[in-house]
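May I ask you to review the protein record following this short note?
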Amino acid sequence: MRSGQSGRTFERDLSREVKESMSINLNRDSVLCEVQRLLNKSQFTKEDSSKAERLMQLADTLTPGATELRRHRLAELTAETAIHDPSRAQRYRLTEGVRELPQLEIEFDQALRFGREFVGEESRALSVAIGGSGGFLVPQTFSNQVWESMKQYDNLLDPAVSTVVTTDNGSAPMSLPLIDDTGNVAVKVAEGVQTTPADIATFGVMQLTEPDTWRTNMQQVSMELAADSAFDLGQFLADIFGTRLARGIAPDFVSTLIAGAAVGKTGTNGQTTTVIYDDLIDLLGSVDPAYIASPKCGWAMRFSTLVAIMKLKASTGGSPMLTFDAGRFMLLGKPIYICPSVPAMAASAKSILFGDFSKFVIRRVRDGIEVKRFGETYAEFGMIAYQGFLRVKAGLAKAAGSDSPIKWYANSAT
């Protein structure tokens, strides 16, 4: 670290142009903000590079260290300008494969790598606004990547399987109207004959309370890796957070689903870890045909249960029950959704679900995914830590007194 005298020398050496552009008192934060403003410029010039280098030197005199990530970025940008300046090109290593991203993704990427406070003021409200947990909100692309990772882990979280509803906020319960019209049918009426009043369809209301907040464990990334623009930090975190969130959220959702569903078939004595062909037929037959006709009607089970079913054949000796179509296994003509959180076959376990999964409603909050960045916590180890947050709630949409759209198979207790 340079002496205080050296710091004053550097301050005096700053050009008048730099001082005027900053228009603020010289301190570490103001100097680094000016550096970041230069690095954010769409047209980065050699003059900007020289100015940024001198500001970085000044920052070193105002505080020990803490500027390494910006030095990496400065070197990268300077390398791009050095293409047209052979005398400077050898000082820098060009980074290949730098991703071209829309502006919001660029700002979010910079917030991940360097911290929210060094993103331009005009972009903070759009891409890195502070959320309820204290982290910064993510752009839609990052949110989509997280949900993609989640649904790959557990199909129940897939919008193509369940019904996913996005609300503008999570500060109040969400009411979902329900109707049970399975008992009403049309009647033929002769000309001039008065219509006999029929039963009115039964209406109900499903309430999803305020979404729960889920958080991941911290994920550490080295400062060097975070500063490497060729490394897709956003995709890496989205994959990690998506899987970790799914491991916690999916078991909670499956418990909610099983609690709202109804028994369809219970295995006979001795079937504590097995299922037979007739059990599957009975489970299918226990669901109202109106639900079976739904495009989202299918089976939910863990993979080990699917393997056990693979070994079964129709009791008549006919063709196997299983087929494979459009990327999914099909059982008796209906898709199988792989859900690791559905219980494994064991005594009294509700190990297989069947029915209309469009009736399982997942409520998520718009801008409900947040990322916290911990730049100082592990700085002495040269690491940056990240933590993900997600707000969601789920429930089975079923009118009171109506038949359940989803039924379960339970293994025998003995």
User: Anything to note?
Assistant: Confidence is low (pLDDT under 50) at residues 1-25, 63-67, 82-101, 122-128. The first helix runs from residue 4 to 13. The radius of gyration is 30 Å. The chain has 14 helices and 15 strands.
